[in-house]
């Protein structure tokens, strides 16, 4: 490379040499300043493979991403940001919101950057852009509510089969001189999306049989420059209200009462799932329950799923809500909101059995609402006596006058000792696997860097416009994503790239802080932060798994090694679920506790076949390893389900003393993992630099390691071409 050439000029021709550059630097043949000019732009893209679920990318087939393995473990947390932590395995946007609310720090989603930031964390496929043929052209309106209008595509359009499209209701007029997406009306409507998106992306709810599945998100363009958010959700047979209409009675066949009973159980189970995550639905009614045909069990031919979170509908909400004088600051507790849902659920169940899903009026000057409900049940002559008795008990508990006396939703409220309940229970316990739709990418492969790489130019343009108008409203992770996105959309991007990374680092985003100093150096710019601050950020990155940092005037070599050892002691790049089990880790680190563990438990420590020997190797507990091998007689070649030995795990974590001991005991390094065909040689970079050559020589000469061992990139069917990822639980 000639003096004076910049990284942006040589990015493409240099990317193929990046791995060799990194290895040479490890050997001490190059200084970081020698390597950076050729790798400058790659540092940003590599850091962006820091996934919110802390997954390490396994593929080395794309030269632009050769540092992914090191950078992917930094995590998504903002080190100095409110509520930040470094011990999250999977970032759940719902949990993130609950935490921020309890800390008094939550701001409602009202900007495109917040919306995009949330979606980047969820991994939901998107965005899909309905630009060439918008919804007016390609679909028919099938429903309309306060928050969304629902469309179904015409049959001659392909790509969204099995889905309906919910478009946020926004006025298309705009404020003078303000872009559409920056207008106040648009920003307010984004709030209507927040709870729905966060909730439907929650891992537990995505796999719940009675919660509607969100498949993708995108934008409709009623006008060429007016992107309106849309959600693509699974298509139902109909709403519960329409399903129960007299003209549709034939759908229920010979057992209409059993089908109503099953659907009531579905509604209760769905609301129970929401409440288990402290989600208040707020608008429970038959219109917000979707009915699907279920072919898995002929005794339970339909399935009800909860949809459309929102603001309560008059007639379906608890009258107590409207009595503001009752809910003073001292009387109100958030938990009461769950009991308000109970009341709406009671009305919904009653409506299903006596009013074909229509609204039920329980107001009476002479009787309580519960008594009116019970009287209406008695008038339903076709209802079996056991069901009537159970519904009577259920409604008394759900519709109680005192909200605190109401039962919380639970299928046991409707439990009967009959075949109908047994059939439903059998179905409900099978759960559901999320359906894969044409053209969608699995959540696992559409987060973080992969998400930002796929983002459409129109969304990037809107984000940049928002940044120009209001920098303070931008999420730091969205700024970092924006920095990556513009590198593929512009011929000249250095100035905004560095500005976005600078502001992202200032906002506390760890990946931005990890690469900031190197990016500034690569582009010969003066950092906006002190050397002391930059050194602190680098050491934080190293302790999170960025093992390629080098010593400098501000960072001593021993400081770097201490930070690296902190990462190794926590488990390094080991992937066993046991790293999340505190009792296992305590046993793995202490010889006496290990003995006690073996007395009380079996050798396995998780569902992946890892043993206590794997756990001790992962945390570098040499004495425990020695005791397990010599005293407890653990076979040195013990493998887990992926054929990983304890020696392999020690290499993943970078523990030289454990590696030496196991090699002394005859451990072999030739075994490759079952899925990716990885060997111990692939993890040499985790070791202290002065040990790499010695250990590499030893495992090749003495332990049978194969120099030509090649990993296999596993690409799943719905990965969008992205390689399979490996979870690092302790990060």
Automatic annotation (TrEMBL):
Start and end residues of each Protein kinase domain: 136-425
GO molecular function ontology, one term from the record: protein serine/threonine kinase activity
Repeat region (ANK), residues: 642-674
Keyword entries, A-Z: ANK repeat
Gene3D superfamilies found in the cross-reference section: Ankyrin repeat-containing domain, Transferase(Phosphotransferase) domain 1
UniProt entry tagged with the keyword Transferase: no
Top-rank lineage group of the source organism: Eukaryota
Key word Transcription present: no
Ranges in coiled-coil conformation: none
Family note: Belongs to the protein kinase superfamily. TKL Ser/Thr protein kinase family.
Name the UniProt record assigns to this protein: Protein kinase domain-containing protein
Annotated organism of origin: Uncinocarpus reesii (strain UAMH 1704)
């Amino acid at each position: 490379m000639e003096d004076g050439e910049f990284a942006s000029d040589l990015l493409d021709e240099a990317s193929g040499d990046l791995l060799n550059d990194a290895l040479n630097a490890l050997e001490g043949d190059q200084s970081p300043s020698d390597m950076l000019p050729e790798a400058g732009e790659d540092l940003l893209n590599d850091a962006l493979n820091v996934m919110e679920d802390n997954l390490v990318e396994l593929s080395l087939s794309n030269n632009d991403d050769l540092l992914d393995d090191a950078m992917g473990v930094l995590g998504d947390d903002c080190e100095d940001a409110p509520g930040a932590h470094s011990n999250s395995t999977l970032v759940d946007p719902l949990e993130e919101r609950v935490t921020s609310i309890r800390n008094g720090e939550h701001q409602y989603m009202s900007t495109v950057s917040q919306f995009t930031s949330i979606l980047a964390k969820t991994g939901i496929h998107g965005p899909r852009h309905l630009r060439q043929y918008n919804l007016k052209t390609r679909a028919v309106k099938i429903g309309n509510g306060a928050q969304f209008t629902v469309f179904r595509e015409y049959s001659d359009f392909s790509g969204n089969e099995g889905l309906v499209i919910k478009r946020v209701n926004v006025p298309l007029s705009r404020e003078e001189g303000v872009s559409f997406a920056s207008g106040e009306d648009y920003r307010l409507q984004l709030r209507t999306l927040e709870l729905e998106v966060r909730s439907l992306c929650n891992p537990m709810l995505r796999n719940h049989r009675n919660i509607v599945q969100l498949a993708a998100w995108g934008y409709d363009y009623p006008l060429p420059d007016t992107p309106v958010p849309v959600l693509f959700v699974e298509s139902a047979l109909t709403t519960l209200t329409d399903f129960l209409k007299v003209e549709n009675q034939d759908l229920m066949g010979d057992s209409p009462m059993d089908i109503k009973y099953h659907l009531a159980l579905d509604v209760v189970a769905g609301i129970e799932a929401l409440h288990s995550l402290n989600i208040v639905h707020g608008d429970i009614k038959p219109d917000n329950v979707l009915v699907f045909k279920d072919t898995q069990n002929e005794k339970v031919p339909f399935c009800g799923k909860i949809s459309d979170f929102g603001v309560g509908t008059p007639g379906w909400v608890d009258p107590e809500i409207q009595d503001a004088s009752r809910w003073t600051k001292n009387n109100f507790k958030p938990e009461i909101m769950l009991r308000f849902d109970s009341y709406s659920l009671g009305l919904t169940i009653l409506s299903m059995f006596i009013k074909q899903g229509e609204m039920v009026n329980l107001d009476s000057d002479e009787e309580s609402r519960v008594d009116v409900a019970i009287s209406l049940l008695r008038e339903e002559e076709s209802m079996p006596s056991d069901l009537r008795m159970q519904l009577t008990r259920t409604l008394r508990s759900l519709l109680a006058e005192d909200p605190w006396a109401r039962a919380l939703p639970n299928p046991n409220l409707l439990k009967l000792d009959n075949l109908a309940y047994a059939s439903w229970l059998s179905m409900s316990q099978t759960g559901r696997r999320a359906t894969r739709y044409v053209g969608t990418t699995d959540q696992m492969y559409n987060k973080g860097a992969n998400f930002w790489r796929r983002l459409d130019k129109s969304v990037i343009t809107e984000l940049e416009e928002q940044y120009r108008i209001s920098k303070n409203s931008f999420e730091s992770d969205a700024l970092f994503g924006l920095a990556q996105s513009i590198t593929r959309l512009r011929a000249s991007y250095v100035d905004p790239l560095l500005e976005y990374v600078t502001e992202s680092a200032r906002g506390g985003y760890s990946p931005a802080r990890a690469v900031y100093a190197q990016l500034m150096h690569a582009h010969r710019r003066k950092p906006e932060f002190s050397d002391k601050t930059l050194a602190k950020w680098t050491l934080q990155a190293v302790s999170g798994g960025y093992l390629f940092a080098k010593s400098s005037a501000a960072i001593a070599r021993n400081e770097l090694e201490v930070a690296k050892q902190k990462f190794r002691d926590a488990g390094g790049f080991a992937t066993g679920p046991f790293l999340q089990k505190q009792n296992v880790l305590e046993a793995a680190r202490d010889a006496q506790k290990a003995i006690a563990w073996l007395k009380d438990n079996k050798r396995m420590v998780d569902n992946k076949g890892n043993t206590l020997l794997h756990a001790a190797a992962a945390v570098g507990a040499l004495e425990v390893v020695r005791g397990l091998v010599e005293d407890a007689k653990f076979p040195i070649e013990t493998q887990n389900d992926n054929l990983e030995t304890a020696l392999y795990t020690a290499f993943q974590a970078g523990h030289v003393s454990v590696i030496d001991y196991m090699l002394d005991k005859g451990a072999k390094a030739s075994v490759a993992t079952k899925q990716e065909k990885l060997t111990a040689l692939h993890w040499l970079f985790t070791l202290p630099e002065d040990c790499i050559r010695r250990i590499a020589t030893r495992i090749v000469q003495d332990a049978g390691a194969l120099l030509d061992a090649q990993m296999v990139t596993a690409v799943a069917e719905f990965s969008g071409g992205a390689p399979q990822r490996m979870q690092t639980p302790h990060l």
